[in-house]
Amino acid sequence: MDPFKICPQCAYTWNVRDDFLKDPSICLVGFQASFKETEPGHYLFNHILEGKHCGTTLAVEVEAFLSLHKGTMFTEIKFESPMCELHCTRVDDLAQCPVECKNAIAREIMQAFSQC
Q: pTM value?
């Protein structure tokens, strides 16, 4: 079985998603939204290890965390629709979004992540 994520800077390996999420050296710094239904969105996490000179940013596809969502799964992207609040235009905007949109689900999931 492939590991969940390997840090490209220091080669630290998280074998499963839960280990990644529980690791205190990982914190959410951004969300790169998808603007088309066929593109994946990405969460951006910093890997901060004091004394090991790692401070890299890791991108992980939103799809790796979708099973954490227990509500309705929206499949449409409603970016730039009349109801869109444009949260997705700013990578560092980690706020929730009230729109029934695929990216709003990603925003809801990331509320449980440790933020920097």
A: 0.93
Q: Are 48 and 87 in contact (CB under 8 A)?
A: no
State the Cα torsion 75-85-71-15 to the nearest 10°. Answer: 80
Domain ranges of the chain: 5-110
User: Are the C-beta atoms of residues 19 and 4 closer than 8 Å to each other?
Assistant: yes
Q: What does the alpha-carbon distance between residue 116 and residue 107 come to, in Å, rounded to a whole number?
A: 16
C-alpha–C-alpha distance, residues 4 and 106, integer Å: 18
Instruction: Dihedral sign for Cα 107, 88, 98, 104, please.
Output: negative
- For 23-75, write each residue's pLDDT tens digit: 999 999 999 999 988 889 999 999 998 777 788 999 999 999 999 999 999 99
